[in-house]
Structures are given as structure tokens and as C-alpha cells.
Design a protein that fits this description.
By secondary structure, the protein is an all-alpha fold. About 10% of the residues have low confidence. The protein is elongated, with a radius of gyration of 31 Å. Helix content is about 80%, strand content about 0%. Among the domains are: about 80 residues; about 180 residues, no CATH class. The protein has 18 helices and no strands.
């Protein structure tokens, strides 16, 4: 009696497990496979971006376009519209027309020239055009020399100084020489250092990214090098000052600054200035800048839209790892159960298929 009851209970449990496996298949299998792939590609910014975009509500695209237009950024609105079109997301026709008109009327020539002059004069840009002015002055060493004299002089006098600006300026001055020697091939790195400095002055860097560069700057710059270089810069002897700094600085952290700057500069020269400033607003480390540079090269004109919609999540698993790990574990359990019952079903089918053959053999032997 107990044996029969146990068999009945086991049969019910088995049926329940099979039912659960069948019911959960449409949810667990696709999500589990996607999550496992995501974890396997944790260092692939494109895979992370695709995973997040696949789960982004379609209505967020129109909301993002409206926010971009309200912020007087038609270029961003156009990027979001292009991304929506590429993913088959329907955008209201009136909003599409509004975006196209805004793009065609983007910024007057007078405003751009005014911002350009202000950026060149102060090195503190308040717009994309102002950033152009700040970059132009740095490309001619004017900005770097100015900031090394100001910040380096304060450092040597024991006054308050900005180690971030000082370190970026020193790195930029070093790259300027490389631009000249390489007939311009190092220009993207120079654009990057100028953009980093301008964004730092404008408060457009994330706090963690600024801390990372400040730490590298403190490691790279030292007092003896500045005591030699600052007087030379005041006398206008830039080449001698650059040589003095290059021979006395810690090369490893300086190279990390320059490599990160090269990623920013590459994005700016290929995608535009705003794309570069956008990545500076979401990156937390120089490594994030490298991943964002890779993403930019792969997604093209959709880059700004992706940064606006996903932020730093475009290149990191922050907030996703536990979810992905949960789906992966669920899929592993589902697969184990499916394999077990699949084996039992196969064994049963094998027995049924062999039953007539077995009876025939018994008759032949008899």
C-alpha cells in the first residue's frame, strides 16, 4: 500500500516537473541563452549595448527625442531617430518633421563665432563651439603653456592648484611635439587632451573619471621638472621646456593619460565634438573611454543616441550582472531537468521499439 502511494506521489511530482519545464521554456531558454552569451562577452561593448537595447521600451525613444529637442541638441535628436529607425521603432511623423527642421536650423553662425572666441580666450567652453576654440588654442600650445604656467606656478609656490589641469596640460604639451614630428599623425591624441581639459574646466567630467586622471597626473608630474620648465615657458622657450618635462616625468602614468586622450580624440574627429563630450560625461575610468571608443567605431552615427539612452551601461554590466547570472542559473537548472527527462523518454522509446524484436527472438529460440 505504501509502495503504491509512493509511486503515485512520485508520478505526480514527475508530471508537475515536466509541466513546469514545458511552461517555462519560452521564458527561460531565450533569456538564459542571451544572459550566458552576455556574461561570456562581458568585455564586448557592442554585445552589452545590444542586450540593453533589446530590453529598452520603445516609447523611450520618443521621450529621448523630445528631451534632446528641449535641450536644443538637434544632432542628438537626429541620432536617436536614426537608432530608432535601425531597430524598427516607429516614431511619430510630426516629431520626425520637428527633428529635421531643428537640425536644419541648428545654431546661428553668429552664436558659434561668439562661443568660439570665448572658448579660445578663456579655455572654458560653455558650448560645442566654445570647445572648438579651447581645442584650437591647445593645438597651438597656447592653452597648454598658459595652464602649466598658472597651475605649475601655484604648485611650486605651495598654493592651491588643479592637479588634473596641470597633468593634462603637461601630457598635451608632450603630444604637441609628437604631432610636429609625426607630421600630424598624433593630432587625435592632442584633440583628446584638449577636450579632456576643456571638459574638466566646464565640470563636464564624471567625478570618478576626474579622480582617475588626477591620480595619474599626481604620479606623472614632479616638482624638479616643473622648476626647470616653468621659467622656460615664461620666457617663451617651449621646445626646451617640453624636453625638460619629457626627461623628468614618470612616463607610465603619462602614457595612460595620452592613450585615453587618443580614444577621445578619435571619437571627436570621426563622430563630432559632441560625441566626445558625451563619452566624457558617462565614463568612470580611462578603461571606459577605451571601451566607448570601440563602441563608437562599431555603431557609427548611433553612438550619441546609445550614450543618451544607456549611459555608462552601454559598456558595463553594472546592474545587469545579477540578473544575467540569475537567468543563466535558471537555464542551467532547466537544461539539467530537460536532459534527465529527455533521457528517460528516450530509454522508454527504445524499450518500446525493441519489444517486438525481443518477442521474435524468444520465439525463434524456443
Amino acid at each position: 500500500m505504501r509502495l503504491e502511494a509512493w509511486k503515485s506521489v512520485r508520478g505526480l511530482v514527475t508530471a508537475a516537473i515536466i509541466a513546469i519545464l514545458v511552461i517555462t521554456t519560452p521564458f527561460v531558454v531565450p533569456n538564459g541563452i542571451s544572459a550566458a552569451r552576455l556574461i561570456g562577452a562581458y568585455d564586448d561593448p557592442v554585445a552589452i549595448t545590444e542586450y540593453r537595447l533589446d530590453r529598452l521600451p520603445p516609447e523611450q525613444y520618443e521621450v529621448a527625442i523630445l528631451e534632446a529637442l528641449a535641450g536644443e541638441d538637434p544632432d542628438l535628436a537626429a541620432s536617436i531617430l536614426a537608432l530608432a529607425d535601425s531597430r524598427g521603432i516607429r516614431i511619430d511623423g510630426a516629431l520626425r518633421d520637428r527633428t529635421e527642421v531643428a537640425v536644419s536650423n541648428q545654431n546661428s553662425i553668429g552664436n558659434q563665432l561668439s562661443d568660439l572666441f570665448e572658448g579660445a580666450l578663456t579655455g572654458r567652453p560653455d558650448s560645442a563651439a566654445g570647445l572648438v576654440g579651447a581645442i584650437v588654442t591647445d593645438l597651438t600650445t597656447v592653452g597648454d603653456v598658459r595652464d602649466i604656467i598658472i597651475e605649475g606656478g601655484a604648485y611650486l609656490s605651495g598654493e592651491d592648484y588643479d592637479p588634473f589641469i596641470l597633468g593634462i596640460s603637461v601630457a598635451g604639451l608632450g603630444i604637441t611635439g609628437a604631432v610636429i614630428l609625426s607630421a600630424g599623425s598624433a593630432t587625435t591624441a592632442k584633440v583628446g587632451t584638449s577636450a579632456l581639459k576643456a571638459a574638466g574646466k566646464a565640470g563636464a567630467l564624471t567625478a570618478p573619471l576626474r579622480r582617475s586622471f588626477t591620480r595619474l597626473s599626481r604620479q606623472a608630474v614632479n616638482a624638479p621638472a616643473l622648476r626647470t620648465a616653468v621659467p622656460m615657458l615664461k620666457r617663451g622657450n617651449v621646445p626646451a621646456a617640453s624636453r625638460a618635462l619629457s626627461s623628468s616625468l614618470n612616463a607610465k602614468p603619462l602614457m595612460r593619460i595620452q592613450d585615453a586622450a587618443a580614444n577621445v580624440g578619435t571619437v571627436m574627429t570621426k563622430q563630432g565634438l559632441r560625441a566626445g563630450t558625451d563619452m566624457l560625461k558617462v565614463a568612470d575610468t580611462p578603461a571606459d573611454l577605451t571601451r566607448l571608443g570601440k563602441l563608437s567605431a562599431r555603431v557609427g552615427k548611433h553612438f550619441r543616441a546609445i550614450l543618451f539612452l544607456l549611459g555608462s551601461g552601454a559598456v558595463t554590466l553594472t546592474g545587469l550582472f545579477l540578473t544575467a547570472a540569475g537567468w543563466t542559473a535558471s537555464f542551467a537548472v532547466w537544461f539539467a531537468g530537460a536532459a534527465y527527462f529527455g533521457f528517460r523518454l528516450l530509454r522508454l522509446g527504445w524499450r518500446i521499439a525493441l519489444l517486438p524484436l525481443g518477442r521474435l527472438l524468444v520465439r525463434l529460440v524456443a
